[in-house]
Amino acid sequence: MEIINKTRIIDEKVVPVTHDFKPNLNISITKILNPFGNQNAESLEFTKRLDEISSEFSQKLPHEIAKAPVGFSINDFTIIPPDKIIFLLYKTGTVLRLQQGDHDGYPLEVLVTEDLLQKLVVEVNLNIILVGGGLFETRIFVYTLDKFENVTSLNSGNIVSSIINYPGSGILYSIHAEADVVAWDLKNMGKFSVVSNENFKFISVSQSKGWLALATKYGKIQYIADKTIEIKDIMNITKFKASYSGLYIAIGSKKSLTIYSYEEKSLNQGASHDFEAKILDLAYSPSDVLVISLINGEMHIWDHVKNRVPIIMNIKKIKKVIVGYDWNIYASTDMGILYSIQWPHFPLKYELKGTMLSGFSTDSQYLAYGTKSDINIMNLESGSCENAFSCDSDVNRLVYVRENLIFATTRTNFYLYNTFTNELTKIKNPDEDYINTIALDSIRQLLYVGGTKMTVKVFSVMPLNMIDQFSKGSNTIQSIIFNPLDSTLIIRDSSCIKIWSIESKIEVANFDYSKSLMCSLSYDSKLLFIARPDFYISVISLDSNSLYYEFSIQKCFCKSIYTCKDGSTFITGSSDGILRFWDMSTFSLIFSIKYPGAIDFMRISEDEKYISLKIDGKNIYLTIIENPLYEKHISIYSPNPNIHNFIKHFLDIRDKKQIIYDPSLENSIIMPDKITLLHIYAHFGITANVKVALYAGAPLSKYANKLTPLTLSILSNQKNTVLAFVKFFNKKITENPLLGNSISIEDLMSINKLGFSALTDFYDSLLWVNTIANLPVAISSTWRLPIHIINSEFVPQKSWFFSPETEENGLSIEFLTSLVSFNMVSGSEESIEFLKSLVTSPCQDIFRSKFIQNYIDHKWHHFILITSIQCLLYIIYMGFLCTVSITPDFNSVNIIFFSIGFTLSLYEVLQIFGGIREYFTDIWNMIDLSRTIMLIIYADSLIKSRSSQATVLLILNLFSWARGISYFRIFSRTRYMINLITEVIKDVLPFLIILGYSTIGFAFILMLMSLTNTVFSDFLSNSYLITLGTIDKPDYSTIQWICFILATIINPVIMMNLLISIMGDTHDRVQESKEVADYRELANLILEIEIATIWQRNVTSVQRMHVCREVETKNVGSTWLGKVREIKNLVNGIKMNQIKAMDVNNKMLSENNILKDQVGRIEKILISLKDKLIDSNDNTKSEIFCPQGHQIKFEYFYEKPTPCTNCKKVIEVGYYCSICSHCLCKSCFKLAYKEKVGKTDITCHRGHKLTWITDHTQYKGYEKKVFVCTGCKKKMYTNSFNCNLCKWDICYKCMDIIVSKSPIAWSKQCAQNHGLAWNPKPHSAYSCNICKVTFQKSGSFRCDICDYDVCIRCFGEIA
């Protein structure tokens, strides 16, 4: 066992940057936000926090502190700690001194040779600076620090390659080309000693101990520590660096880096890392953290001691790096620029090699861990470790029982160790059971232990004693969990998971999850997480013992799960080495951390500040880290180690630059605020990035447990971004129903006010058909559906809706669950505001949503009785009002009438107290208030017998009968009529103006036609009566009759029919939106009642709505939509069907065209292949025989591929003997030709023996893989029979003709009937007598008598 880094070191501290050359960070984000309006206070708070993060991030970027003129390059630089003075050596030999606060420094020319010096060294104690190392320079120049005067020069006579010093020692080391390594005594200038006379190229010194490390280019290392160590043949070294402490040496070879550790006076190979670019320079920090610069401009900061993955930064053309004494990183570039970079924050991390088990103390100050038979304790604050006790054999399991008690098990004994008193109690393991699991009860008094013996053993803690045991089955117990909520045990084995009652020791529930990997209980003990072997995690609701949810972890096995105490996050460790942090409300991944091995188990301290992980990679070790959820510094957790990319992306958003979505930054988060990129995109209204991030699976978690991305976009008035969220929920919420938990009631109210047309679909998606719960699919038809239940649980239960004995047959039913939880208490502030947002929403189609309809129906179900009583009371009031109107004398009837009237007025008082603004904006309330006022006036006039009594009673009747109309909203058949009346009045107002105009006009005409009566009011009333159809038979003249007839046609006929037509159109339009009008009126009525219930205003109960309803049949409805609407729907339906059909046809036509093109191309390819096959296999008649003497022929084997007899290669085209099934591939067939030709005396035209060759590039002047056959004059890419002397080639097909056809050449005759014979030696250039082509160097089938020649190709055709 090995303990690494027992103590905390300085690199855990973040040193603030104190440079005076900070960039201007006074630009506030608030200046570029909110183009649509004022921000909410919470949004401004988020903006302020982003400003703080921006300021912090700006410090993490490289800051330019020195810049040389164009063309200058920094060869070397060094830093003097006390005053932070930086000396820079430029390529020209110029030294620049830079001091804090001095932007430009002042150049000091160095008087040196013409050689370009490479190295710069400062010895503060001796007040000197040394410059040396060059191509031809043998001297090392020494200058004073203050005045930079040349003191002397050191010269060993050999060219200096490099120099380095051990600060404060007065010793300078130099490497000389092709010579020695020399140590110079700077206190006695000129005195030196030879350290080594080998040709070393690299040199490094440990800054704390002065140990010298040397290396050759070819892999030899000499480490001069307390003992000289030599290692040979490590690698081809390109970079070399000893650590600050001297305990490590980093060796780079191009793109690879390997760390060697100095242990027990020997160097041992340790961690290694491969980079994507060449390594340029290495530097160590005082805590042995390595800084690496790469040629591609990346700078990696790698803590290999604690095995922390590299942090990546970007600096263009980076060259050399140094870690300063101020804990800043300084980097020079080829462009002569020097940068300062703030040292990054590394979270706490310990590693314990070889450790298998661990457990945190209850006070979270200590960690107990087991290695084989030893139990050790680590102090988490200091990192110190000590051995606690040893067991008789290997430890199986251990757990911290209390702050000072450790319980451990082995195969033979159980141990209880008191860390305060060092007292160790040991009892015998009765059946030598191999313990797999230990569980504690809620008060840590009892231990439940299970293992391979299939029994649960119960131990008391003080004293340690086994007090009970019971058998739970026939399988090995793999884990036990104590459930404090109902005092049960959750026991997992290889076949299932059972819940056992501790009191009765019987099974109360069983979950069939065979071969489950692990299970874990949520902190509130309501959910059970079960990891399955198919990469899924099932979540069981222990309230209903049914499935709550299930999700997958990217094709890897989940080994550990922990739910945080605040209920907002849970953590999983898996076989792919990734520690994942999930949002508990939506079960979406927030961020992750990668480790170099599988995470076998995970333990979290009691205060949740520390996490221990068993990593199983190349080595098994225990890693202890600080929980990122409790991070105190502003830190970035990202799958992309290049934190500069994230910072630049963040700052570009702040500066309102054009942003491109970067997939490598997905699942990145800023801690401790839990700010994701989706929060930032939503806040700034970058809608395009919001869309991509949402569909890429970005979490909808709350920043700092306050605001979700959706809420931020609403508070920042980013309307387009809000719409993007709404559309995302429409499409994706059914895939993950728990996404609805990210939507608050405040979000819904704000979305309602925005009035998007997509709201109907949005709310429909929030009422989810629950497919998780084990619920009935049918119910007796005697039940009245739908049934609404309000409960906080996500998974409904049958007992909420029906009695246990209810028969499950009859009506087909389904269960709906609202995916959003909100305050359902009637009269509460949230309930009233939500109703207001509904009735005032610009999108009134929101009332078509089944979610809203069920919500209003549920509310109305609770108010219908109260409203009905109020309506009945008002009917009684109206009855007494009629009685009082008939008998206005004061009597007992008046007393009852006034009592009822003032009782109804008390309801108005409650409404006024509930909300005075809302009260005076409702027309019905104004009518009711007027009625109450007139009731008081009437009582006064009745008591005092005033003369205005009849008039007051008339007005009281008017307001009372008008107020009575509002009660028709109670009844579903008349509710929408209220809206119909309102709409008719609105629509007929323009008509009434024209009607009034014509009525007045005809009144004047009628008055002028009268000779006796000139009272205008009489004629106005007659004109109005004519409009209504009341006509007297007058005695008119002809002209008067014409005017009268016009009056009776225009007003009674035309105008009245026009009125009927307008009202009919209005009726159709209102009928079309009857559903909307119906629920809107009902919502207004419910809102009126809820405002009056002032005693419920501050009650809060966040719950869900569950609905059991009959399964709806699609496309069936009985609602009358109006004639025009029906026609529109019919036409729209036909149009949509036509569009769909056209789309399908166009798609089919395009696919057909594509297929035609593909078929055409395939046909062309087949024709081409056929031609090539015929051309390349034109030797099917060649006389090559199988071992049995049968001639083999060219065949195709597409249907049944056949192996070659020689090489066993399976082929589809080759040469085959159908008699003995002898088969040859093309290559083996050519070899058969080679053997056949070798047995003949065929030569070139000069009689040289031919050679079979496969590579024509071996002969000078030959084109690559190409030759021209002398027989057929074709350019060939295949093998040939070759004469190297004559540069003569013939293809194997022509050779086959010569070999096969020569014996029968005599049977073919010339024009004079002479036989032909093969003649390899052409007498001269000849022309074939058949094809007339001229040949040279090529033999022919010839008749010497007639001088008759036939070329090889033509002879093959005629033979």
UniProtKB/TrEMBL annotation:
GO BP, sorted A to Z: calcium ion import across plasma membrane
This protein's name: Phorbol-ester/DAG-type domain-containing protein
Coiled-coil blocks: none
Transmembrane intervals: 860-883, 895-916, 950-968, 988-1011, 1039-1060
Predominant subcellular localization, coarse grouping: membrane
Residues annotated as domain Phorbol-ester/DAG-type: 1189-1244
UniProt keywords, alphabetically: Membrane, Metal-binding, Repeat, Transmembrane, Transmembrane helix, WD repeat, Zinc
